[in-house]
């Protein structure tokens, strides 16, 4: 755990949130500022700074995150479609430096994303 990381604090239970899913390596919760009717964040419990810090050693959890996303897409009734986004770095608008995947559903999405 990184003591100054918001999402590490969330995993440690130090911040109130709406938990959607948890297992040994992955945690998912509702985004506090939803950009779609359904907007959840899926994160590894291990602190990985961003998509740019995924390596051969830690990438298994990323594959598992996508299994969890597929499972949640069924449980949360996203059959009309959903968008998965991971902002990486300043120009992409990453504000929390712990790898996270936004999963959004329940409205139409434009492309390319602004
Ligand atoms: P990003 O800007 O891509 O780094 O995404 C960070 C996301 O974390 C934003 O969508 C925020 O709304 C969300 N967020 C920040 N603080 C919290 C919190 N305490 N609980 C849930 N989501 C949060
Ligand atoms: Zn962290």
Compact description:
This protein is α+β, with helices and mostly antiparallel strands. It is 19% helix and 22% strand.
Report on this model:
This protein has helices spanning 6-11, 60-75, and strands at residues 19-22, 26-30, 38-44, 82-85, 101-105. By secondary structure, it is an alpha+beta fold. The protein has a five-stranded antiparallel β-sheet, covered by helices on one side. Strand 2 and strand 3 form a beta hairpin. It is globular and about 35 Å long. The mean pLDDT is 96. It binds adenosine monophosphate and zinc ion. Zinc ion (ZN) binds next to helix 1.
Keywords:
2 helices, single chain, alpha+beta, binds zinc ion, binds adenosine monophosphate, globular, 114 residues, 19% helix
Largest sheet: 5 strands, antiparallel
Bound molecules: adenosine monophosphate, zinc ion
Average per-residue pLDDT, rounded, comes to: 96
Q: Into which percent range does the helicity of residues fall? A: 10-25%
Distance between the termini: 32 Å
The oligomeric status of these chains comes to: single chain
What is the ordering of alpha helices and beta strands?
A: HEEEHEE
What percentage of amino acids are in beta strands? 15-25%
Tally of individual helices: 2
Structural class: alpha+beta
Radius of gyration: 14 Å
Number of strands: 5
Unreliable segments of 5+ consecutive residues: none
Principal-axes shape call = globular
Strand order of the largest sheet: 1-2-3-5-4
